[in-house]
Amino acid sequence: MEVCYQLPVLPLDRQIPKHVLSRRGAISFSSSSSLFGGPDPRKLSQRRGAISYDSSDQTALYIRMLGDVRVRRQVGFEPERRGSHPYLNVDFRILHSQADGPGPASSRNIRRLLSFQRYQHSSRLCRGLPDLNPLPILDRDYTGQAKCMLEKVGGWKFDIFLFDRLTNGNSLVSLTFHLINQYGLIQLFQLDMVKLRRFLVMVQEDYRSQNPYHNAVHAADVTQAMYCYLQEPKLAQSLTSCDILLGLLAAVTHDLDHPGVNQPFLIKTNHHLAALYRNTSVLENHHWRSAVGLLRESGLFSHLPSEDRLNMEGQLGSLILATDISRQNDYLCRFRSHLDREDLCMGNASHRHFLLQMALKCADICNPCRPWELSKKWSEKVTAEFFRQGDIEKKLKLEVSPLCDSRLNSVANIQIGFMTFVVEPLFTEWNRFSDTRLSQSMLGHLAQNKACWKGVLQEQAQGTEEQDTDSKTLPQGSRES
């Protein structure tokens, strides 16, 4: 029996600070707060979102998941135009039509018109924002290299950083669109290609590029890893098309609008999201609600029956909520118990869903299982984000969270602990389940990377000892003086 999930009802009596302004998605994470390096709150008064502030009665009006334009107009919030969308009135399917059409030159013009890079360029100009890239149209050589990389998207050595450069910073959109199309999900679910592209564009925009780690490139990397796991024989032979679509969408949106700080920080700063979600899976709930908001805003599933839409939104939330690291042991123990009893049934929908949760959890923290060069780069990025939070906490005179103090921690000791207590137990059980060349290769990379970090830690310790020895050993003249 399929379980129908329902979105939790948002409380209507929750007072929201005046600086929390409307934002597209679910509940705004106060991206307007200068605390996280965001722009001035006063400049964000026109941003749309599920929280709209009614200044007439000083009451925060919660609008569930963006959809009710009529209500927003009643309180004075008109729908916001996103900017220039050159492709909104063009059916992408005409590009794949077999019927007689315009010549090669006209087709090239259409493709250039629909270029995602040109869309971003014109969109930023219309919004009065500076252009981040003076060359909005990718060089053909770079486009060709990106296409060549996509042919090997199922390889574990896939370099998402290189792919992001080749796609001009659009790795999440390019990769996800390719995978969904490769699985034939566009035709199977009768997805509108314009709506799908628009949804992916909005998702990529809502990842915060200023985050060293939790950004769109991380989401693309997790999506690529999720695809690798979906290709594993036990899953590939059993998962339904709906399972695959949900798995990919969950990977794409699992950290949507991540603020770059963790849940304990939100709780001890009395952030309104922590109160809203009662200090439970605060970030994961926000990622899920933001994802549902963008699904509804884009209308990607608007052609499906409402019951099916709600069920997919609920299952998407169940997948995203499973990435809460504080619940790691619960999922791991359950996974281990299933493997010990050998009672996982791939014909059981709930068991398939649980395996999707485990696959997403693995994909989310798979960086230590990548080849050394990729793993090292990700390790440095996540540590930089930890230390940035620690600096904020010092500035606010708060107790610095564990692993966030740059004076007491290093990349090496953080990674060794993470690998030992979090990554290794999870991937050991995943290897028990999957038992393939990929799962064994991941454990091999994990062991090598752990050894490399131990070597780095030893070098750092030796360097510290030498400095201490030099400082204690003073010249004879210095002693006499």
> What percentage of amino acids are in beta strands?
under 5%
Mean of pLDDT: 79
Helix content: 55-70%
The number of strands is: 2
Q: Enumerate how many helices there are, as a single number.
A: 21
Query: Uncertain segments of ≥5 residues (pLDDT<50)?
Result: 8-14, 16-114, 133-138
Biggest beta-sheet profile: 2 strands, antiparallel
Q: What gap, in angstroms, lies between the N and C termini? A: 86 Å
Structural class by SSE content:
mainly alpha
Shape: globular
Could you tell me the radius of gyration in angstroms? Answer: 24 Å
Sketch the topology as an H/E string, one letter per element.
EEHHHHHHHHHHHHHHHHHHHHH
Side by side, the strands of the main sheet go 1-2
Any overview of this molecule?
This protein has 21 helices and 2 strands. It has helices spanning 69-74, 104-113, 116-126, 140-150, 160-166, 171-182, 185-188, 193-206, 216-230, 233-236, 241-253, 263-268, 272-276, 282-298, 306-321, 328-341, 349-364, 372-395, 411-434, 437-472, 476-480, and strands at residues 51-54, 59-62. The chain has a two-stranded antiparallel ribbon with strand order 1-2. By secondary structure, the chain is mainly alpha-helical. Helix content is 56%, strand content 2%. The N and C termini lie far apart (86 Å). Strand 1 (51-54) and strand 2 (59-62) form a beta hairpin.
